[in-house]
Amino acid sequence: MNSIIDECIADLRAVGVRGVEVYGRKLRQNQGNAERFADLLFEGRAAWVLQQSSIQITLRDRPDLLMSLGGEIVGAEVKHFLEKEQDRLDDNAMARVADVLVPIGDTTTEGAQPWEQICSVAVKKAKAGQYLENVPNILIVESSSEALQEMTETAVNQYYDELHRSRNDPLLRGLLRRLNGIMLVNTRSVGFSATGPYNVEFCEIYDHAVPMSKNVIEAIRNVGLGLPFRPTVLGY
Q: Which of 69, 123, 155, 177 is the most buried (most CB within 10 A)?
């Protein structure tokens, strides 16, 4: 476990992420808590990915990351979605055949559709006051489940529904409007477009309190391929 932590810290320092010393202490303190330890590793992974796109990242608490570009500050909360049982079933089904399309299972997991789960996390973090006031904020979803692939836009559309329902609750609406967009990093698969391979999606939320500059939005979109710092660190 210590070797994983050491590799993680070394990779983050190598690209210039800030707040690594405190982050490393948190990793060591949570070695015995598998879920919390994994969440921290994914926060580090998100920091490493964004730092590659010329955004200065600082690891911290509430929000998990502080992004800085050209003097603009943006808060970022990170959520990790675990691999689902259906993912494992689908993998086994595809491994049993070659060069044949196989049906995959129902992506409804944990009683809700994948986009509903993403939206639910976004809303819960808003209600908990985890998005910073007076600056733009994004939610970064690190997904170990293929069920969430290409679900960002649908999740944002559902978030608009939540904003509409909050129109008679100024306090809740104010908290919800702190969020500017949702970024999804799919750790299980890579797509291909005219610009090359990608596994990062970003969808803006246009009904927000504080606008985010085009420079930051472009930097997030330019991430494209969010690979882990070292395959051994996150189990790829």
A: 155
For residue 129, give the amino acid letter: G
pLDDT, one tens digit per residue, over 40-88 is 999 998 999 899 888 999 999 989 999 999 999 999 999 988 644 343 3
pTM of this prediction? 0.82
The C-alpha angle 212, 201, 66, rounded to 5 degrees, equals 45
| DSSP-assigned letter for residue 188 | S
Task: State the SS3 of 7-19.
Answer: HHHHHHHHHCCEC
Tokens at residue 182, please? Answer: 């949702």
Do 150 and 174 contact (CB within 8 A), yes or no?
A: no
Considering the domain boundaries, does residue 151 fall inside one?
yes
188 compared with 203, residue with greater pLDDT? 203
Please check whether residue 142 lies inside any domain of the structure: yes
Q: How many domains is the chain partitioned into structurally?
A: 1
Matching residue, tokens 């990351």: 65
Asked if residue 106 belongs to a domain, the reply is yes
How far separated are the first and last CA of the chain, in Å rounded? Answer: 16
Distance CA(235)–CA(175), nearest Å, equals 35
Q: Looking at the domain assignment, is residue 55 inside a domain?
A: no
**Does a cis peptide bond (omega within 30 degrees of 0) precede residue 231?**
no
| Domain extent for 92 | 61-234
pLDDT per residue as tens digits for the range 160-174: 999 999 999 999 999
